Amino acid sequence: MAYVDHAFSISDEDIMVGTSYTVNNKPPVKEIALAVALLVFGALGIVLGFFMAVNRIGGDRAHGLFFALLGAILFIPGFYYTRIAYYAYKGYKGFSFSNIPAV
């Protein structure tokens, strides 16, 4: 028996057929809070990591650089989703709150 994916099929039994479809563009508060927290903690980790590397706090420079790398891993998605939320809030074309994934 073959596998059939019905996720993209359109039938008469589909709920969306014949009904009005409205876009819910409310800001997702939890997701935006997570993005801002990632941005802040990532930036803090980068700054503190480089400070640790320069002053050799915690041993050698490798510890500070590793801390800065972890901060960068937090900073990148935080910046990306905070930017999307900001542009969606300002109403830029092509940006909406639906582009931010649910937590």
TrEMBL record:
Source lineage: Eukaryota, Viridiplantae, Streptophyta, Embryophyta, Tracheophyta
Organism of this sequence: Morus notabilis
Recorded topology in the membrane: Multi-pass membrane protein
InterPro entries listed in its UniProt record: TMEM230 (IPR044234), TMEM_230/134 (IPR008590)
Protein name: Transmembrane protein 230
Compartment annotation: Cytoplasmic vesicle, Autophagosome; Cytoplasmic vesicle, Secretory vesicle, Synaptic vesicle; Early endosome; Golgi apparatus, trans-Golgi network
Its job: Involved in trafficking and recycling of synaptic vesicles.
Pfam families in the record: TMEM_230_134
Bilayer-crossing regions: 32-54, 66-89
Superkingdom of the organism of origin: Eukaryota
A cellular component annotation (GO) from this entry: Golgi apparatus
Key words, A-Z: Cytoplasmic vesicle, Endosome, Golgi apparatus, Membrane, Synapse, Transmembrane, Transmembrane helix
Family: Belongs to the TMEM134/TMEM230 family.
